[in-house]
Amino acid sequence: MQQNSATPTHCPYCALQCGMNLTPAPDGTVEVTERADFPVNRGALCGKGRTAPAVLSSRVRLTSPLVRRDGELTPASWDEALDRIAEGLGSVREAHGADALGVFGGGGLTNEKAYALGKFARIVLGTSQIDYNGRFCMSSAAAAGIKAFGVDRGLPFPLEDIPKTGCVILVGSNLAETMPPALRYLTELKENGGTLVVIDPRRTKTAEQADLHLAPRPGTDLALALGLLHLIVAEGRVDEEYVRERTVGWEDARAAAMAHWPEYVERITGVSVPELREAVRLFCEPEAAMVLTARGPEQQAKGTDTVGAWINLALATGRAGRPLSGYGCLTGQGNGQGGREHGQKADQLPGYRKLTDPAARRHVAEVWGVDPDSLPGPGRSAYELLDALGSDVRALLLMASNPVVSAPRAAHVEERIRSLDFLAVCDVVLSETAALADVVLPVTQWAEETGTMTNLEGRVLLRRRALTPPDGVRSDLEVMHELAARLGGEGNPEKRFPTDAEEVFEELRRASAGGVADYSGITYRRLAEENGVFWPCPATDAARGATHPGTPRLFLDRFATDDGRARFAPVSHRPIAEEPDEEYPVLLTTGRVVAQYQSGAQTRRVDELNAAAPGPFVELHPRLAARLGAADGDPVAVVSRRGRAVAPARVTTGIRPDTVFMPFHWPGEGRANTLTNPALDPTSRMPEFKACAVRVEAVEAAES
Asked: Which residues pair with 393 in a beta bridge?
């Protein structure tokens, strides 16, 4: 442990990246205290943040490398474990080629580690087969944002702007449970006289705060947005001057919306025409308003079009690119934003550059000291990569992800992982995926390493090391350094993979310079002194001839397109990939609960959180429960074309009668993602987590 002074740092979980102070105690525990100076959470923390140090305990974490011998994972030295990985990856590459090697990363990795992992895959392994679990987070919003605005940054304005606007339409987000400290922004919005419209098929704790709650049928968010735009046109609420001066594509978008008249949309969504009209009134009457989306509309096989339709509302009413207004996406994972900006994603290079852009390849290759032609092209997206395991992709290096629980069609993904010739996992705990590996490496956690994260606002921040890691634990940067030495050939390739995070960040700055996500003007010193810096932040401010201040608010002067204008999305409603039928008559939607996080690999090891959320459940309406003869707490089975999950019933009027909800944090018989549909959005390659056809069955006591 370090000295007993407090270290200012950030929570390891969601994309708020709440500020906190950590103080080691003489008994080996770590105390979390309020850090009121960080503007995002202003000292507030949820239960996950308060209990985060529990996972630092050697009681629940990995502290030694593990190597599979005679079918069992047993402790090993670091040299043996690294040699085994190099041998496993090297032999597959020699036998089947570089693209037989896969790399799968995570949205919780720091910018430095995400950057190094993308570089490692491409110049050490030589593979195009790299993606990350952030693909399952906000890739649809990213694709729609790039189409509309020319750039993807979760929120184009700071959170502090939300309470100052006139109305927020919140689509498919349950902030009260997924990001509890952020709920204060909606509370303050209402205290300031603003209004809140929440769109969710469930009456969540967030929906209970709304002035208007719309509960559409899962998978119909696209039709709902088109119906609202139809009414905006019909009621003469379009900002014609703004549309003329700052956008293109309005005629086609308007024509598409006019085919979605209110009564037609009511039949599709289940949202009544009076509710549609009230939503339009609340959104259009104030001078300023925002549309915020999250996983609900995004995790669909038409997620890009759906988000594009919600962006259309902001454009048609003249909101985007104006103070206290616009469209934003609530990023989920801790570094879901930065993780894709700097090279983990299959088609991107650092700085949010396109891998297919010759100029981008030249720039990054020069920083890396390699021939641009040696860089592989784009690879498979996350689910497609997981689906190819054991066939085209024969070996996998996996960092900070647990797809056995978190991927769609999870039982199939587990089967593909088991079929690999070789699997190496770097993690802080023995997750369900790590338990299947040939080699597991124990790596440092958030409180034991320094690095940068990029939160949902596009605020790059410094997460400081507060503790000394246990003996036997190394950082992911050290892992890549050592593997580069073993796999990279001649010329001391490990020198291209420094183990000091600040040194890696300095290289990242150069690699990102001139890109969409330009970090070249950001330094560790600035991050410490300024409580974070918003990208883009070039090395200098050409207009002022001085240090660039960062960009808290995007698009106020122009959008990041070639002509500076935003693009409307000419989209139309289409059904979900798997509609209910006689055999599977109910819709399943999935999500999170407040006391658990993502696949639960870390939070399920915290006693206090387990006490609050001990296991999965099936939320269903009393009418459906009555048809099944199931009471609250009785086990029920949810069955899809892909699998079966069993969990206790939670009977509530807060969900539609045609819909059931399951949280996805748990493995075993209650594993919700056994059921979900891997149908992919054609643009973002996002799977359709949020809607699939199921049937619900009562479970006999003997079976349960």
From this structure: 389
Half-sphere exposure of 684 (CA within 13 A, CB side): 35
Whether 394 contacts 96, CB under 8 Å:
yes
Q: In what order do the strands lie in the sheet with 72-75?
A: 72-75, 66-69, 439-442, 422-427, 395-399, 101-105, 130-132
Residues 6+ apart with CB under 8 A from 607: 54
pTM as predicted: 0.96
CA–CA distance, 598 with 107 (Å, rounded to integer): 11
CA dihedral 488, 489, 495, 500 (to 10 degrees): 20
| Cα gap 484→478, rounded to integer Å | 10
User: What integer is the mean pLDDT of 150-164?
Assistant: 97
Q: What percent of the chain has pLDDT over 90?
A: 94
Beta carbons of 461 and 10 less than 8 angstroms apart: yes
Secondary structure (3-state) at 546 = strand
- The string of pLDDT tens digits covering residues 388-414 is 999 999 999 999 999 999 999 999 999
Q: What is the pLDDT of residue 1?
A: 42
Q: How far apart are CA 353 and CA 345, in angstroms?
A: 11
Q: What is the residue-wise DSSP string for 216-236?
A: PPTT-HHHHHHHHHHHHHHTT
End-to-end alpha carbon distance in the chain: 46
SS3 479: helix
- Cis peptide preceding 536, ω within 30 of 0: yes
The answer to whether the beta carbons of residues 687 and 381 sit under 8 Å apart is no
Q: Any alpha helices (H) in 399-500, and if so which ranges?
A: 403-406, 410-418, 476-487
What would the 3-class secondary structure string for 378-416 be?
CCCCHHHHHHCECCCECEEEEECCCHHHHCCCHHHHHHH
Over residues 343-375, the pLDDT tens digits come to: 899 999 999 999 999 999 999 999 999 999 999
Nearest alpha carbon to residue 257 among 310, 329, 197: 310
H or E element, residue 263 = helix 262-269
Measuring CA to CA, how many Å separate 89 from each of 99, 102, 103, 129, 395? 11, 9, 11, 13, 6
Q: What is the pLDDT of residue 544?
A: 64
- Return the pLDDT at 491: 62
Q: How far apart are CA 247 and CA 451, in angstroms?
A: 39
Quick count: other Cβ atoms within 10 Å of Cβ 245? Answer: 10
Sign of the C-alpha dihedral, residues 558, 561, 564, 569?
Answer: negative
Q: Tell me the residue ranges of DSSP E strands in 35-183.
A: 66-69, 72-75, 101-105, 130-132, 167-171
Give strand pairing partners of 677: 688
Around Cβ 78, how many Cβ atoms within 10 Å?
Answer: 17
Q: 114: exposed, middle or buried (C-beta count within 10 Å: 0-12, 13-18, 19+)?
A: buried
**Residue of 162, 186, 173 lying closest to 327 (CA atoms):** 162
Q: What is the pLDDT of residues 475-524, one digit of tens each?
A: 999 999 999 999 986 566 778 999 999 999 999 999 999 999 999 999 99
Side by side, which strands form the sheet with 7-10? 7-10, 19-24, 30-34
Of the pLDDT bands very low, low, confident and very high (cuts 50, 70, 90), residue 700 is confident
